[in-house]
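Observation: inputs received (chain + uridine-5'-diphosphate-xylopyranose).
Thought: call the complex predictor directly.
Action: predict_structure
Action Input:
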Amino acid sequence: MKTKSASISIIGMGYVGLCTAATFASRGIRTIGIDIDQVRVEQISKGKAPLHEPQLDSMLKNAVRKKLLDATSDISLAADTYATFLTVGTPSQQDGSIDLSYIKNATEDLGNVLRDKPGYHLVVVKSTVVPGTTNGVVKRFLEQSSRKTVGSELGLCTNPEFLKEGTAINDALHPDKIVIGSNDKKSASELTRLYHRFYGSKLPPTILTSPEAAELVKYASNAFLATKVSFINTIANIAEQIPGVDVGKIAEAIGLDPRIGPLFLNAGPGYGGSCFHKDLQALINYSQNKNYDPVMFRATEETNEQQANRVVGLAEKLLGSLPFKRVAVLGLAFKKDTDDIREAASIRVINQLYKKGARVIAYDPMAIPNTRKQLQEQIDYAENARSALKGADCAIIMTEWEEIRKLKAKDFQAHMKTPNVVDARRVYNPEEFSGLNYASIGLGPSTGIKNNSP
Ligand code: UDX
Ligand code: UDX
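Observation:
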């Protein structure tokens, strides 16, 4: 590869593909973003991000202006680049397994356009796929449609991403590792060279392994993080039974042990987002098909599912009963600083409140349009946190937005009919809320639910 003229293409301009494209272009590597969605392509071509991600908009604008990034739906342009990354989605199917139809279509289309390309082309699978997919479906479709052989005219690698929504650009610019899985040395060394060009002397630790191992790294990573969240939520639920105990202190203490570490120990309403649930279900399904039942990951998921009941249970404890009570849900996004509500705990909680007869009014600084698409008019929506609280019998904090975190006890007292507050994200200091009926995930009785609650 003549690194000076390095140019790459990325198929699938979703969240991962677009952030990857923007960061490659920001490092002077000419990038072609390919997507079947014409509206998305037009938006990106104008330098506009079709999704919300901090820093992405300005990065895209710059890249398009400098002609380092083009978007197109014409996949044949991939043949003019040196390497093609696949970042199409791999959504869940009913049984938890992943739907590979986008991967198959994209691979087949790519193979067709590579058929007449003279010279080498590197194909990189970045989509999250279960072990064996790159060497199975991808290799087969690619070889059949291109009539070329992987290992000689075609390079093939698995290169999972670990981007977090909200910090995806920073994560792409400063990853803690690069994982490259390949069967042949050339594929791995070509991709490593591309990353050398991207990161210069600051190349992150790079793990070279087989495609199957690289595929499993991604699932192992998300399974571990999800399990850490379910672990601390389990401890939180135990702590709630013990007078004077707050799970925050337990997390602080155990987090000081370097074998445990302080991150991902925030107890809350359960994890959400597009990856944890999807990836755990895929891993469980994959293992079971190999005749191994991963009991631990089933428990991680079950604990997460039940955590929403715990939140609703706290509201019930404060209110006595839920029918006809007005409940303000503050925060809908699966975490702060995003408009994403996929698998969000807020939706699980709202569905339960609704089933139990409560009237829900919700507020979120960004996620109302997406929630409206999913829940329609099943609930009411407020323009700001204070108007959501107006006349409410109970408030439930579901997302740790700064704006919500900044609310004071007096805001709840001033606007609510009765100041019952369920702090499912543990954003407030219980002492400051001692004049209210305040309950929090992971907070034991003497410091938690007050005796004067109805
Ligand atoms: C990524 C994936 O890599 C997934 O495997 C991982 O688990 C999470 O991150 P994401 O970026 O969220 O998925 O994908 P999504 O938002 O679904 O976007 C995929 C894009 O690919 C869409 O814009 C879609 O139009 C496009 N696409 C899909 C193609 O261009 N061609 C296809 O054949 C199919
Ligand atoms: C995750 C992985 O972190 C990332 O590496 C992978 O590529 C995609 O999936 P993301 O889904 O963007 O990223 O969000 P993340 O920040 O990991 O949070 C996931 C969920 O766990 C959120 O709902 C969050 O609120 C919850 N969480 C996280 C907790 O409840 N407690 C914590 O301590 C940490």
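Thought: report the result.
Final Answer: The mean pLDDT is 95. Residues 161-165, 222, 225, 229, 264-266, 268, 271-273, 275-276, 334-335 surround uridine-5'-diphosphate-xylopyranose (ligand 2) (CB under 6 Å).
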